[in-house]
Specification:
By secondary structure, the protein is of the alpha+beta class. Helix content is 43%, strand content 18%.
Length: 478
């Protein structure tokens, strides 16, 4: 009797009371209602009794997929697909697409599209969507034949809502802003706004009546006020165009689009150039892998002054998060050899940023330099500045400070930045001198002194700016 009670206790531990009492019919009803986590244990229990049953494998595989275990779902969905259960085709297509197994994804999407075409059920999905997905998988196969050999020196995962604030660009490359802070107008639906170095032109995206996004340009007039937003008709399509960035040449534009006929699915990054003679943009071209992927990829920004590029992606990230990749930009890209397929796939996925780097290379100094760049755009003129006090409050002239203490902290931050720049330049020259073998003893001593001094200086500008903001906001509240 005691043994029976013990066994019952174990059973109840493994299967909560609700699961034990649920029948297979009830689990199927929950499954149809989208309650995958709740129905999964019941299917698992029944699958142990009938491991080769196609229907049970399909239900269990779909539940695994919908609760986040995409890789684990494959085994069960393949059994279901072998049993000619159409739903398994769709899910296998998605799994293989995510894994860059594009040839298999195309095959299963085609199977599912053919099933939908032959089905007489009016409630079924549209086969055209899966025909498009099959075509996108074929595009993926083509792109795997030409993967750019980029060097990613760093990456960071952050919230999607304000990811662009982590981009660090030199003043010559322009700057990125949120709409409200830059224009002083309330809007929560626009994309990040790119502002040119001269401050006379912005490019960003706005929502349309069809709930999509389109690219617009907004120019600043001589009175320093911005005019009306003008759509970029050459580039806008019935799909979403978003996240633009303009190079310093004023003609080369990067942006993201989810045009299903041109992208891999979701946002892909495109490049185009403005022809000053025809006054039109050239036909946009999608960037190769690893910039683009089966996920959403967007906001590619290139800082030609530092030779550093940035782009964001939600590949392999949880909901609401993106990863920002920081890479070395080159004018003439190189491509990986197609023969090395295992490395090619990993490089296409950016599975490891270390694998993109030169062996024994040390990128720490350039990473530190990038992180010290201010995201705020300096303005021309003796007293002209560009200082974000808070959302909606941007100072462009020293006279706007109401707090003398805040003004002093701001000027101190500027002064220290100039000192840092001068000492970094000196340090660079000393390192060249040391490498050439000239007066190495004295040069080494000076290098060590400067390095120690810079370590103490680096955090100071940001600290003074924080104090400046705090003092100014305190004064404004009064």
């Amino acid at each position: 009797m005691k043994k029976k009670i013990a066994r019952l206790g174990i059973l109840l531990f493994l299967f909560p009371l609700g699961v034990v009492s649920q029948t297979l019919d009830e689990a199927r009803a929950m499954y149809r209602a989208g309650e995958y986590a709740e129905s999964l244990p019941v299917f698992e229990k029944n699958l142990k009794k009938k491991p080769k049953n196609p229907s049970l494998n399909q239900w269990y595989g779909v539940c695994l997929y919908e609760t986040g275990d995409h890789a684990g779902a494959e085994k069960y969905l393949k059994i279901a697909a072998a049993g000619k259960i159409p739903t398994a085709y769709r899910y296998l297509g998605d799994i293989y697409f995510e894994q860059y197994r594009f040839d298999e994804a195309a095959k299963y999407y085609t199977y599912y599209a053919e099933y939908l075409d032959e089905s007489e059920d009016d409630d079924n999905e549209d086969s055209e969507y899966y025909e498009v997905r099959s075509a996108q998988a074929e595009t993926g196969m083509q792109k795997l034949a030409k993967v750019e050999a980029i060097t990613v020196i760093d990456s960071l995962v952050t919230d999607k809502a304000d990811f662009f604030r982590h981009y660090r660009l030199s003043a010559e490359s322009g700057s990125l802003h949120d709409y409200t802070s830059l224009f002083g107008e309330k809007s929560e639906e626009t994309s990040p706004v790119y502002l040119t170095q001269r401050g006379d032109k912005t490019v960003y995206a706005v929502p349309t009546e069809d709930n999509g996004y389109e690219l617009v340009v907004r120019m600043r007039s001589g009175s320093r006020t911005f005019g009306e937003a003008e759509p970029i008709e050459d580039l806008n399509t019935p799909y979403n165009e978003n996240y633009p960035f303009l190079l310093s040449d004023g003609t080369t534009l990067y942006f993201a689009s989810d045009d299903e006929e041109e992208s891999l699915g979701g946002y892909d990054i495109f490049k185009t150039s403005y022809d000053r003679y025809t006054e039109e943009y050239d036909e946009p071209e999608a960037l190769p892998m690893p910039f683009n992927s089966p996920y959403n990829d967007y906001l590619l920004a290139i800082d030609e002054s530092t030779g550093i590029g940035w782009f964001a992606s939600d590949r392999f990230q949880p909901e609401g998060k993106v990863v920002i990749y920081i890479f070395l930009w080159v004018e003439k890209p190189e491509y990986l050899a197609v023969e090395n397929s295992p490395e090619l796939l990993r490089r296409a996925q950016l599975a490891s940023i270390r694998e993109t780097q030169t062996a024994d290379a040390d990128y720490t100094k350039i990473i530190e330099q990038i992180r010290r760049l201010s995201t705020e755009r300096p303005a021309a003129g003796k007293n002209k500045i560009y200082f974000i006090v808070s959302d909606g409050i941007v100072y462009t002239d020293l006279s706007q400070f109401r707090s003398e203490q805040a003004r002093k902290h701001f000027l101190k931050a500027q002064e220290i930045r100039k000192s840092i720049s001068a000492q970094e330049n000196e340090l660079q020259q000393l390192r060249k001198k040391y490498a050439a073998g000239n007066d190495r003893s004295a040069t080494a001593a000076r290098i060590e002194t400067l390095e120690k001094k810079l370590e103490t200086l680096y955090p100071q500008p940001e600290a003074h700016e924080m104090q400046s903001r705090a003092a100014e906001l305190s004064n404004l509240r009064k």
